[in-house]
Specification:
Rossmann fold; single chain; 5 helices; alpha/beta
């Protein structure tokens, strides 16, 4: 008996290549059950600035492609830093392009904020995703503070508490499916 592959669209909120947030998503993709297929999206910088006048039947091609990836996925993972006590503008911009749709409605979602502090960014991400009607619980949300001291250049988690937190997060995320 073959099990269905579960497609996860993972969005890194950082536009920096090989960021800590990318490394966390990569870690999750390597430690989640084999039935999960994770595609990591790193192209937030390519999505044009949100403009309600362009949010029509035919939005910009980058927006259409982004929305299609979300729509086609069985679940969503978002891992983001916090910039100046807020979400990165590029991530908020991408999510704003989704407000006029229902693509996040009841979509099983995992939310991670990994930053120096991250508390306010994590609150904002939670509020935005509730507004978009994404499906998540406290067990599928994770705040990792002081991320730079908890992961090395190769993406190896070097902090035991963070390993345990990610292990529990992965377990609870998988349980939703």
């Amino acid at each position: 008996m073959q099990t269905k592959t579960i497609k996860i669209f993972a969005i890194t909120g950082s536009t920096r290549r090989n960021s800590s947030n990318y490394k966390i998503l990569k870690y999750i993709s390597e430690n989640i059950k084999p039935k999960f297929e994770i595609e990591i999206f790193e192209d937030l910088a390519d999505i044009p600035h949100f403009n309600p006048d362009l949010d029509t039947e035919n939005p910009p091609k980058e927006v259409k492609a982004f929305r299609n990836k979300i729509n086609e996925a069985d679940g969503i993972l978002i891992c983001t830093p916090e910039y100046v006590f807020s979400l990165p503008g590029s991530l908020k911009n991408a999510l704003e392009w989704c407000v006029s749709t229902t693509i996040f409605s009841d979509k099983k979602t995992g939310l991670i904020t990994a930053s120096a502090s991250g508390e306010m960014g994590h609150e904002q991400l939670t509020l935005i995703m509730k507004t978009l009607e994404a499906e998540f619980q406290d067990e599928t949300k994770l705040l990792i503070q002081g991320i730079r001291g908890k992961i090395d250049e190769e993406g190896k988690i070097i902090n035991e508490e963070t390993k345990v937190g990610l292990r529990d997060f992965i377990y609870n995320f998988e349980k939703q499916f």
